[in-house]
Amino acid sequence: MKLIILLNKIRPQPENGNKGSDEEKEKNEEELSLGVKETYTVLAKILCLKPMLVMIVVLLTGKIAFAASDGMTDLKLIAVGITTDKIASRSLFLTPLHIVLPWLLGKQTAGPKPLNVFLWAYPYRLIMGVVFALLVYWTPSFKESSGDYSYFYYAIWMAAYYMQQIASYCIFLSMMAFNAQISDPKIGGTYMTLLNTLNNLGGNWPVTLFLSITDFFNRKNCVATGTKLILGACNTKKDEEMCIKGGDVCEFHIDGYYISVGICTIIGLLWYRIFYRRIKYFQKIPRQEWRVIKNK
């Protein structure tokens, strides 16, 4: 649904006076029929395009900044007693947002510089990762004696979540609009599929990486129940089992989640500084330079 709305917004509308030229352009950009071998050959050529080499790096590394926040925040909330149905309920009212935003950003994303929206939203997305970490840190202080959390707490989380989603969706819309502009219509959805695959891969591998390494940053102490007395470390599974078996509690001394969020944020700031001008330059590259099948 997101893709349909976006493509409808960015699709150019022909004028009556240019009917002949539009028909000629449509004929020139008629989709080619490619077999399996030809399709993979074209994909290889796309990947070897000079501007595409940098674009691949951007797509595969741009979401490292959000990996820890996206991959672990919900897990941390579940660990402190927030139920999964409460977490899932945040998404109930996202559909209107996903309908309204493409309409609001239509002029920017349909114009010659759709990536300006990306560059505007990226820092806000970084900030929201830090905000999420702070809210996770303060979450236990909102816990009531009954073990539940107040509606005020959920309202704060909802507001933060929607702000994060606005920034995230702006990034998505901007990149999708640019991908649609540079994609070669002669090879149909093959070009867009390749770009979307790279974009999705760039969002998945950093999450997997940080989920794997965050445990190395964790430091836990075995604390006597009802006291602050530290009985020893419980960083291994065996130590944790012995601590719990003795009736004590294994508590975080250093939580790797916050370290991971900090690392991701620093990487994101450096990434933004390094690629800002390059992403601006993408929009100045003639669209023909992104195509492997040149118009005659």
From TrEMBL:
Q: Where in the cell is it found?
A: Membrane
Q: Which UniProt keyword terms apply here?
A: Membrane, Transmembrane, Transmembrane helix
Biological process terms from the Gene Ontology for this record are:
acetyl-CoA transmembrane transport
> Any stretches that span the bilayer, and where are they?
42-66, 117-139, 151-178, 257-275
Q: Which InterPro entries match?
A: AcetylCoA_trans_1-like (IPR024371), AmpG_permease/AT-1 (IPR004752), MFS_trans_sf (IPR036259)
For this record, an example GO cellular component is: membrane
Show the GO MF annotations: acetyl-CoA transmembrane transporter activity
Annotated membrane topology: Multi-pass membrane protein
- List the Pfam families hit by this protein, alphabetically: Acatn
Q: Which domain of life is it from?
A: Eukaryota
Protein name, please? Answer: Uncharacterized protein
Lineage in the entry? Eukaryota, Metazoa, Ecdysozoa, Nematoda, Chromadorea
